[in-house]
C-alpha cells in the first residue's frame, strides 16, 4: 500500500487507529510524515512520546510548533536526544513561555545529561506545568533544582544520589523513591505543604526519619518497603523513639484520611503500626503482608471511621480478634480470614474482594451472604488459581442486592453457572483472565436475565473434542441472545478443533 497517495486527512484517520509503535513504522515509509505530525488533526491534545526508533527521520517532524502545543510530553533516553536538532527545538520551545505542556516526564540515562539539563532548566518558563516525573539511573551533576510556580505534583526516582532542591510553592503531591538520606531531607523540608505523599523505601534505614516530619496538611500517606540487592543496609531493627502525644508527627497526622503500608520484606511490626494510632480521622486503610495478630486487629478496630480496608497478603495468626468496623463499605479480604468478620453482621459493607484457599468451595457464598447482607459488588480472585467446584454458585441467589460479579485470575469450572440459580438482580458480570470450557457461556443469558454488561477480558475458552460438543455458543451467538446487554470480548479467544475465534 502506498501511503503517499492518500490525502492528509485520510492519513490522519489511519494513524489515529494505529498503536504508537505502528505509527512510527508507518512514518518511515510515508514521505509526508512531517505534514501529518504537524497537522491540526494529528496529536491534538494527545501525548507526545520522544524516544528512539533508530531513525533520525522520526524526529525531523518534531518542530517547535508541534512540541509547544502538546499538553503531555515524555522524554525517553535515546541517541536522538543528543542531536543538535532536537536540543535546539527544546530550547526554542520551552524558553519562550508559550509552551502548553501540563505533564512532563523524563526517563533518562547518564549519557543524556545535556538534554535533561536543558529540560530541567526550562521548567520555570513552563507556566502551565502541573505534573513532573523525573527518573534517572545515574546522578545528575550538581544535583537538580526544580523551580516552578505552577507545579502541583512531582514524581522523583534517582538510582544514584542526586541532591534535589525545590522551589515549588503550589506543590501538594509528592511520589518519591528513597534510597539515600538526602531524599528524606527533601521530604522533611516540604512535608508541611503536602496533601499526598507516596514514599517507596528501598532501604529501611531511612524510615525512622519519616516520624520527624510535620504533616499538618497531609490527607494521603502511602508507604512501601522494598529491598534493593545492590544497595547495602544494616539488618538491625528500625529504631523509633517512644511516640508522645506532644510529638510533631503525632499532632500533625490527626487529619490523615488515607493510609497505605506495604511491607514486602516483612520488616515492619506492631510498634511501627502504633505510630499511626493518632490518625483518628482515617477513612481508608491498607495493610499488606502483615501477620493478623491480636494487637494488629485491635489497632484496626481503633479506626472507627474506616470505610475502606485492604488486608491483601496478610497472614492469619493462631489467635486473632474479631474486627468490628461499623462504617466499613469496602473490604479486600486476605486468605481464609472470613472468621475475622463473620461474628457480627456488617450491614454497611457493599463491596467485597474475596480470596480463599479452601478445598470445599460449596459454602463460601452462603457464608459471605450471612456475614455481609447488603453486598452489591463481589470480586472473587485467585482461590489458589482454581474455582473448580461446579456447585460454588449454588447459593448466589442469597446475595439479594448483588449488582456486579467479578471472577478473575484463575481456572473456573464450566458448570459453575449451570448449577447456579437464576439471579435476576445482577446487572454486570466480569470474567477477567480465566481459563474454562466454552460451554460456560451457554447458560449465562438464562441465569442472569437482567444483565446489562458482560465483560470477557483476556480469557482462554476451550472446546473439549467430543461428539456432543459439535455445537458451542460463539461470541456472536451470545450477542444475539442478549440484545440488551453490552458484551466485550477483548483479548479473549475460543479455541476449537477447527481453529480459534477472538
Could you describe the 3D structure shown?
With 502 residues, this protein is an alpha/beta fold. 20% of the residues lie in helices and 24% in strands. It has 14 helices and 26 strands. The protein has helices spanning 8-16, 20-29, 33-37, 56-60, 64-69, 84-94, 113-122, 181-190, 248-252, 270-273, 294-301, 364-371, 444-447, 475-481, and strands spanning 47-50, 72-76, 103-108, 131-136, 144-147, 153-158, 164-167, 173-178, 196-201, 220-225, 258-263, 284-288, 291-292, 308-310, 315-316, 330-332, 351-354, 377-381, 386-387, 404-412, 428-437, 453-457, 460-462, 486-488, 493-496, 499-501. The protein has a 22-stranded mixed beta sheet that branches. Strands 5-7 form a two-stranded parallel ribbon. It is flat and about 65 Å long. The protein starts with 7 loop residues before the first helix and ends with a strand. Mean pLDDT is 83; it is low at 52-58 and 229-242.
Tell me briefly what this model is.
With 502 residues, this protein is α/β, with parallel strands linked by helices. It has helices at residues 8-16, 20-29, 33-37, 56-60, 64-69, 84-94, 113-122, 181-190, 248-252, 270-273, 294-301, 364-371, 444-447, 475-481, and strands spanning 47-50, 72-76, 103-108, 131-136, 144-147, 153-158, 164-167, 173-178, 196-201, 220-225, 258-263, 284-288, 291-292, 308-310, 315-316, 330-332, 351-354, 377-381, 386-387, 404-412, 428-437, 453-457, 460-462, 486-488, 493-496, 499-501.
Amino acid at each position: 500500500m502506498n501511503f503517499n497517495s492518500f490525502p492528509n486527512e485520510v492519513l490522519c484517520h489511519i494513524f489515529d487507529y494505529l498503536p504508537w509503535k505502528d505509527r512510527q513504522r508507518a512514518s518511515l515509509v510515508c514521505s509526508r510524515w512531517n505534514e501529518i505530525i504537524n497537522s491540526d488533526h494529528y496529536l491534538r491534545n494527545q501525548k507526545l512520546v520522544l524516544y528512539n526508533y533508530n531513525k533520525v527521520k522520526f524526529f525531523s517532524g518534531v518542530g517547535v510548533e508541534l512540541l509547544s502545543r502538546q499538553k503531555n510530553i515524555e522524554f525517553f533516553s535515546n541517541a536522538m536526544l543528543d542531536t543538535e536538532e532536537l536540543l535546539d527545538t527544546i530550547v526554542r520551545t520551552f524558553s519562550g513561555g508559550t509552551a502548553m505542556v501540563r505533564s512532563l516526564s523524563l526517563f533518562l540515562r547518564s549519557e543524556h545529561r545535556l538534554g535533561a539539563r536543558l529540560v530541567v532548566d526550562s521548567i520555570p518558563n513552563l507556566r502551565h506545568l502541573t505534573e513532573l516525573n523525573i527518573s534517572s539511573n545515574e546522578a545528575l551533576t550538581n544535583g537538580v533544582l526544580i523551580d516552578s510556580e505552577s507545579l502541583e505534583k512531582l514524581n522523583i526516582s534517582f538510582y544514584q544520589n542526586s541532591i534535589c532542591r525545590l522551589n515549588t510553592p503550589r506543590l501538594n503531591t509528592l511520589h518519591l523513591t528513597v534510597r539515600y538520606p538526602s531524599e528524606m531531607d527533601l521530604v522533611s523540608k516540604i512535608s508541611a505543604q503536602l496533601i499526598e505523599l507516596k514514599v517507596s523505601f528501598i532501604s529501611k534505614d531511612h524510615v525512622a526519619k519519616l516520624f520527624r516530619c510535620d504533616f499538618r496538611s497531609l490527607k494521603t500517606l502511602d508507604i512501601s518497603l522494598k529491598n534493593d540487592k545492590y544497595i547495602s543496609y544494616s539488618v538491625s531493627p528500625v529504631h523509633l523513639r517512644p511516640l508522645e502525644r506532644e510529638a510533631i508527627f503525632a499532632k500533625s497526622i490527626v487529619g490523615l484520611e488515607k493510609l497505605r503500608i506495604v511491607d514486602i520484606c516483612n520488616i515492619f511490626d506492631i510498634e511501627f503500626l502504633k505510630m499511626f494510632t493518632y490518625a483518628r480521622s482515617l477513612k481508608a486503610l491498607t495493610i499488606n503482608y502483615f501477620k493478623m495478630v491480636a494487637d494488629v486487629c485491635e489497632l484496626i478496630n481503633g479506626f472507627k471511621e474506616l470505610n475502606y480496608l485492604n488486608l491483601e497478603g496478610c497472614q492469619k495468626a493462631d489467635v486473632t480478634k474479631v474486627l468490628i468496623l461499623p462504617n466499613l463499605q469496602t473490604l479486600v479480604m486476605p486468605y481464609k480470614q472470613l472468621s475475622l468478620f463473620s461474628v457480627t453482621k456488617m450491614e454497611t459493607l457493599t463491596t467485597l474482594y474475596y480470596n480463599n484457599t479452601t478445598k470445599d468451595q460449596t459454602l463460601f457464598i452462603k457464608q459471605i451472604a450471612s456475614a455481609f447482607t447488603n453486598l452489591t459488588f463481589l470480586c472473587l480472585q485467585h482461590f489458589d488459581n482454581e474455582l473448580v467446584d461446579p456447585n460454588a454458585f449454588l447459593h448466589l441467589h442469597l446475595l439479594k442486592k448483588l449488582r456486579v460479579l467479578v471472577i478473575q485470575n484463575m481456572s473456573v469450572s464450566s458448570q459453575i453457572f449451570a448449577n447456579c440459580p437464576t439471579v435476576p438482580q445482577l446487572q454486570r458480570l466480569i470474567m477477567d483472565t480465566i481459563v474454562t470450557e466454552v460451554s460456560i457461556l451457554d447458560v449465562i443469558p438464562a441465569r442472569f436475565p437482567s444483565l446489562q454488561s458482560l465483560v470477557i477480558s483476556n480469557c482462554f475458552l476451550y472446546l473439549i473434542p467430543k461428539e456432543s460438543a459439535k455445537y458451542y455458543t460463539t461470541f456472536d451467538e451470545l450477542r444475539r441472545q442478549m440484545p440488551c446487554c453490552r458484551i466485550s470480548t477483548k483479548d479473549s479467544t475460543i479455541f476449537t478443533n477447527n481453529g480459534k475465534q477472538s
